[in-house]
Amino acid sequence: MKPVSLTRIAAASAVLAMLASVLSGCGTQNKTPETAPKMDLPTGWSDYTVEGKQAWPDSAWWQHFGSDELAQLVQEGQRNNLDIAAAVSRVRQSEIQARIAGAPLVPNVDFESGINRQLPLGSGAATTSASGLFNASYEVDFWGKNKASLSAAEASLRATVYDRETVNLTVTCGIVSNYLQILSLRDRLVVARENVANAEQVLNLLLAQSRAGSASALDVARQRSVIADQQSLIPDLQEQERDALTVLAVLLGHTPQNFTVKEAGLAAIQMPEIAPGMPSELLSRRPDVRRVEAQLAAANANIEVARASLFPSINLTGATGGQSSALVSLFSGPNLLANLGASMVAPIFDGGARRNARELAVEQKKELVQVYRGTVMNALSEVEKSLGMIHSSEERYKLKNVEVEQAQYAFDLSKIRYREGAEDLMTVIDTQRSLSDAQNQRGQIKLDRLQATVSLYKALGGGWQDQPAPPARSPHNQS
User: Fold this and answer.
1) How many CA atoms lie within 13 A of 292 on its CB side?
2) Residues contacting residue 408 through CB under 8 Å, at least 6 positions apart
């Protein structure tokens, strides 16, 4: 028995591939892909600069807050966050879909085999026949439909990669923001407890004067009411801290039970300074902008797919194999066979489905053009708002510091004057309330300043740099 020769099998596939390549090269039009629409961008960010310099955040921007614990939490969140893990899975799905879209660009080969045994009812010997056939088929990409489908899939892959980076940036900013909020709430708890202690000092003074007959029961009751009011703020702040810890735990991929952070307050947190460069750099700095650009590229390719569907589909087929009534001589020379064929299917009437599909693809692209413009304008707006918030919160914080200092002086002075009988109790209570309010407001303004910096980092795309999406594996290299 002669060994099976694959030469003729390969020859049929080679002829198909060669013919398909020639036809495809002749029929495919070389088109320059459309770029994202141009926009009239401003030349700068109003007057917000840092010492006349312009800078962009680096890839580890959260380290500029000066907290080792925060840096560790961000790294942990980027490893364990469930939304990031889901986004990574979506990228892998898009890679597979791109490989699937590229499969029609190479011939499809399969093998058919069969054995038939005939048993006569009367006289005569039984006969056995067998056949083996390799089939190859290929759709000639004469109008570029398959290449356009692959281009659309690859653009969708890039969009998914940028979407993953957007999720990563959002999660990172969420971790930093919630961490800062937790520390701010701990500072406010310290202030609340100090206010309770101050109120209790005034109550002790009142009780001493009451025993001496110089303070009324009404004064004592009024001060106890003030203490109760101050104490009532503590459980609410503690609940807010627990809620923020729960959110942070989920962002890190932890269960909320028994989760906490070590830092006691914002005292050790540094105030980063950053100013953006030119607004046009946002187009390469923000992954959401890049995502819409990739979606535009996919929409352009989908228009080409819909256009190509209006034209005939050309298919080439080939087969090689053998058949014989004697199983042992199946692959002998005389029993080998091969055939080549070509077919063309042209659309005649489909109720306008293909033409409407192309019009739909065109309108979808027009929609994405407007989405792109809206995304860029939103990016510019977010940067401008964040810079404005940083500028205003810095001014407010300076003024609030002066207010706290004066409120503290007024409260201390009112206690002395009350002890000496020069002021009434209501003056002491009013100055104490003013001090408490000013301290709480200062803590909130400090948090607002830090949160505005986080928002600016996010608006500028964090430290993300546009990298080309990983190319989908060629169907030739699939395992």
Assistant:
1) 23
2) 435
Average confidence (pLDDT) over 401-405: 94
Chain-centroid distance of CA 240 in Å reads: 27
The number of beta carbons lying within 10 Å of the beta carbon of residue 101 is 24
pLDDT in tens, 71-129: 999 999 999 998 888 888 887 887 777 777 666 666 666 667 667 767 666 666 767 66
Is the Cβ–Cβ distance between 163 and 92 less than 8 Å?
Answer: no
The full DSSP string for 159-194 is HHHHHHHHHHHHHHHHHHHHHHHHHHHHHHHHHHHH
For residue 115, the cross-strand partners are 130
Q: Which two tokens stand for residue 69?
A: 């614990």
State the Cα–Cα distance between residues 253 and 249, nearest whole angstrom.
6
CA 458 from centroid of its chain's CA atoms:
12
Q: Which residues pair with 318 in a beta bridge?
A: 136, 340
Cβ neighbours for 145, distance < 8 A, ≥ 6 positions apart: 304, 305, 308, 309
Instruction: State the Cα–Cα distance between residues 372 and 388, nearest whole angstrom.
Output: 24
Mean pLDDT of the chain: 76
Measuring CA to CA, which residue among 454, 334, 445, 357 is closest to residue 394?
445
Answer with the residue of higher pLDDT: 77 or 332: 77
Maximal CA-CA distance, the chain: 137
* Amino acid at the residue 299: A
Sketch out the chain's domains with CATH numbers.
31-106+142-308+357-472 (1.20.1600.10)
Helices in 57-144 by DSSP H: which ranges?
Answer: 68-80, 82-102
Is the pTM of the predicted complex or chain greater than 0.85? no
The SS3 call for residue 281 is helix
Tokens coding 203: 């109550």
3-state secondary structure of 136: strand
Q: Which two tokens stand for residue 295?
A: 């979606």
Closest CA to 219 of 423, 13, 48: 423
